[in-house]
Amino acid sequence: MNLQISPKEEPEINLTSLIDVVLLLLVFFMVSTSFVREAELSLILPQAQTEPNARVSQIDALEISITKDGSYLINGNLLSNSERETLSSVIEELMGDNFDSPVFIRADGLATHQSVVTVMDVLAKLGLVEINVSTLTLPEP
């Protein structure tokens, strides 16, 4: 009769299958993750909710329209070029001494933001303070 105590074997953990599972999970999460795009902005443009203001007559007001290619129209007349100096001189000529009258800016939806900012910058340098941005009134459903 052999009563010798046999040495116990140390238990081993096979890490090969665990590494495979972790690698598969890593690949799955990398493929299924959607990345946040912080560079994109979601803009909701304004829409008119009220009737136009009746106290301002169109004779007193200056209307500057910006087309999609960046051209400027002042009271319906197309400017010869889109330079800042041309825009400034025409506005000064039309406004005369009446720099407290309102100015309406109407920009095409495809116009560049820089064109609108240029108009606002010229108006601010001339000292015009009542600047309005025209919006589109959508028909009632």
Protein described:
By secondary structure, the chain is an alpha/beta fold. It has a domain at 62-133: 2-Layer Sandwich (Nucleotidyltransferase, domain 5). Helices cover 30% and strands 13% of the residues. The protein has helices spanning 16-32, 84-95, 113-126, and strands at residues 62-66, 72-74, 77-78, 103-107, 131-133. The protein has a five-stranded mixed beta sheet with strand order 3-2-1-4-5, covered by helices on one side. A hairpin with a 2-residue loop joins strand 2 and strand 3 (77-78). Helix 2 packs across helix 3 (113-126). It is rod-shaped and about 125 Å long. The chain starts with 15 loop residues before the first helix and ends in an 8-residue tail after the last strand. The model is unreliable at 54-58 (pLDDT under 50).
What composes the largest sheet? 5 strands, mixed
Number of helices: 3
What's the number of extended β-strand segments?
5
Inertia-based shape: rod-shaped
- Arithmetic mean of pLDDT: 79
CATH architecture of the domain at 62-133: 2-Layer Sandwich
Beta strand %: 5-15%
> Which strands sit side by side, in order, in the main sheet?
3-2-1-4-5
The first-level CATH class of the domain at 62-133 is given as Alpha Beta
Radius of gyration: 34 Å
CATH topology of the domain at 62-133: the name is: Nucleotidyltransferase, domain 5
Give the low-confidence spans.
54-58
